[in-house]
Specification:
Strand order of the largest sheet: 5-4-7-6
Order of helices and strands: HHEEHHHHHHEEHHEHEEEHEHH
Number of domains: 2
Low-confidence stretches: 1-6, 8-40, 375-379
Oligomer: single chain
Distance between the termini: 35 Å
CATH architecture of the largest domain: Orthogonal Bundle
Largest sheet: 4 strands, antiparallel
């Protein structure tokens, strides 16, 4: 089956807890949120978070740590979507509101699922965790980051395996509850709806071209790259410039990559194989678009470190047929319908102040946000 973007949409959809797995972990591992922030560097949202729970549902607390974890995941996603641009205070408040709403909705749905006796076997939770970890490994390898065990990745994100296991179980239980509601409401997706979606979104069904690249990756000598000084960046640049000079002097890219690169694929001569361009970070795509087969890129600085890329070959964009896309479209549309059902279910509970109590107070800091109107101007 060809990989298409509709599948990525399905996996990344924020659906009141229907989204499975370690998407938060994937975002936060590179940001080292495991360490407590310095008080004088706290942003407008962090300064408003109470020492205890941020909210409760039927007396069940939503803890500060869980909230900050998700809030920073939202910020990381914002930063990635903006290409690393500045995140203004208005955007931080928007992320804060979204994170709080998401956690309250999840708690409502989880408690209702438990009330109905819905459960998930341990073996299913372990399998889902393993699947998400494999996806995380693939993403990190493509970005040139080092890949460790699941436990090591969780430790970097400030979580234990038990924490991740419990979060995964909760997500799976909520997903099953959504499926239960859909079954009770006789929700289904017709062939007509699938075809209509396919014909209305042609841009989703153009498979981006494939690229075959090699890379040499070097990072500053510091545990957390984002904390590196300019001197440490300069030292890393000197090392990768020496690697580039060796290649230009006649050494093979593979030999230099094995000797110098700090990426997990160094033993393979830095070879990433043939990869859909859609799966690569934007800076890889921008670099390869300027190269002919066999060419070397300039040295590229990213949030992960320094990259030197060689384009080995490419294949043109292809169209995805309706038959290839059908199953993914059907799943996506079903999730969309389940989201609407769950939203209708939680709305009367969210507004019930006897059941849902909120302790996160942003109001005292909002006066300092000059572009606050943007929060309400967007849907």
């Amino acid at each position: 089956m060809k990989r298409i973007r509709i599948r990525e949409m399905l996996l990344s959809a924020s659906v009141c807890g229907l989204t499975l797995g370690l998407g938060v972990l994937m975002t936060v591992t590179g940001n080292a949120w495991a360490q407590a922030p310095q008080l004088d560097r706290m942003d407008i949202v962090e300064r408003s978070v109470p020492a205890g729970p941020v909210a409760s549902v039927d007396g069940n607390p939503i803890e500060r740590e869980e909230y900050l974890f998700l809030y920073h995941a939202h910020l990381s996603a914002m930063g990635a979507s903006r290409g690393g641009g500045e995140i203004r205070d208005s955007m931080r408040v928007r992320a804060a509101i979204a994170a709080l709403g998401e956690l309250i909705q999840r708690e409502i749905l989880f408690l209702e699922a438990l009330e109905r006796g819905i459960g998930v076997p341990d073996s299913t939770v372990r399998s889902a965790l393993e699947e998400e970890f494999i996806m995380l490994q693939d993403d990190m390898r493509r970005s040139g980051e080092s890949v460790g065990s699941l436990e090591e990745m969780l430790e970097r994100a400030g979580q234990s395996y038990d924490d991740a296991f419990d979060k995964m179980r909760k997500s799976l239980i909520i997903q099953q509850f959504g499926e239960t509601l859909a079954s009770e409401a006789n929700i289904s997706v017709s062939d007509h709806e699938v075809r209509e979606f396919y014909e209305s979104n042609p841009e989703l069904f153009r498979q981006q071209g494939l690229v075959h690249i090699r890379q040499i990756f070097v990072k500053p000598q510091v545990q957390v790259v984002r904390q590196a000084t300019e001197e440490q960046w300069a030292e890393a640049r000197q090392r990768i410039e020496q690697a580039l000079a060796r290649i230009r002097a006649g050494e093979s890219f593979e030999a230099v990559a094995r000797a110098v690169s700090e990426a997990p694929n160094a033993d393979q001569g830095g070879d990433l194989g043939m990869i859909p361009a859609a799966q690569l970070p934007p800076f890889y795509v921008e670099a390869t678009n300027r190269l002919n087969d066999g060419d070397l890129s300039e040295i590229i600085r990213s949030e992960h470190g320094l990259h030197l890329i060689q384009l080995m070959g490419s294949e043109d964009e292809q169209s995805i047929s309706l038959d290839d896309a059908r199953d993914d479209i059907r799943r996506y549309l079903m999730v969309d319908k389940q989201e609407a059902l769950l939203d209708d279910f939680v709305q009367p509970i969210i507004t019930n102040q006897d059941r849902v109590k909120t302790y996160l107070q942003l109001e005292r800091n909002l006066a300092n946000v000059p572009d606050l109107e943007e929060i309400w101007a967007q849907p």
